[in-house]
Amino acid sequence: MPPLMAIEFLCRVADVLSDYLEGLNEDLIKDNFVIVYELLDEMIDNGFPLTTEPNILREMISPPNIVSKMLSVVTGNSSNVSDTLPGATASCVPWRTTDIKYANNEVYVDLVEEMDAIINRDGVLVKCEIYGEVQVNSHITGVPDLTLSFTNPSILDDVRFHPCVRFRPWESHQILSFVPPDGQFKLMSYRVKMLKSIPIYVKPQLTSDAGTCRINLMVGIKNDPGKMIDSITVQFHLPPSILSADLTSNHGVVNILSNKMCIWSIDRIPKDRTPSLSGTMVLETGLERLHVFPIFQLGFRIQGVALSGLQIDKLELKVVVNRLYKGFRASTRAGLYEVRS
């Protein structure tokens, strides 16, 4: 068996369980063990993946809710499996049923990106790449056939598609041709590598002698993306050799947790001053200087722009319905964004 097949199936199981249980942890699985068992029974048959499409699974097995849990307690019947087989299981597009009808036909496309970056202690950008997803929310009558094109598809690497995407149009013309599932789904994922610029800089300065360490940390906008940057946070673990720390900032809130995690919540950068954090840290007895330096992790969110530069050209529907509402959005947030000191 191809190893990627097993990995892909496990990822699909995790996505389905997260969708059903609105999260994924040990307690949720224990509380909803019957539904988890029923889902696994439908998703895999005799060791082979069978039904992995969330829309079909929802028709076969009802998601958990308070009413169904109360009925199972009263009646003693804990099964959520439907008595009828979904019509899409015998369709050539098993991710979509054929009798869908809407008064208003709508389709929304979101570009959701995460920026991963590593900046070394000299301030040099070592690595910067973006992992992105094209998320679609479709509510269209019948069986629509959509095509989605980008203005600059050549920048994309490591593309991964939903099963509804036809591969040949993408291979020949970099066009996404697909019959979408009903509702929200991930159409494709991608990477954009070797980016040369970052939106925010973090400048740490640490000096230590005589058993104390002084820290000064500055955060500011390096390359303005043209949209508001908010939800800015800086996190770092105090080194094990630190006994106590007294840190203050001229903007935002600084919290030091019991596990020595320091969280500086900035939110938005003001126009009249540069946010800075400063203070002193006391080292263990016998240590003159700090030998283990912290790694600063940056978080941020930018609405309305995809930092990879990817742009949607057009979205077309081959069979025209009465009226189709189309919407496009983009957002970027920090992924693994590290600044070393």
Description:
With 341 residues, the chain is of the alpha+beta class. Helix content is 18%, strand content 43%. It has 6 helices and 19 strands. The strands form 4 sheets. It has a 9-stranded mixed sheet with strand order 6-9-4-3-19-17-12-15-14, with no helix packed on it. Strand 14 and strand 15 (261-267) form a beta hairpin. It is globular, with a radius of gyration of 25 Å. It starts with a helix and ends with a strand. The mean pLDDT is 88.
Summed up:
This protein has six helices and 19 strands. The protein is α+β, with helices and mostly antiparallel strands and 341 residues long.
Helix tally equals 6
Radius of gyration: 25 Å
* 3D shape: globular
Instruction: Output the structural class.
Output: alpha+beta
Total count of strands: 19
Assembly type of the chains comes to: single chain
Strand-residue fraction?
35-45%
The main pleated sheet reads as:
9 strands, mixed
Q: What is the mean pLDDT?
A: 88
Terminal Cα span: 45 Å
Order of helices and strands: HHHEEHHEEEEEHEEEEEEEEEEEE
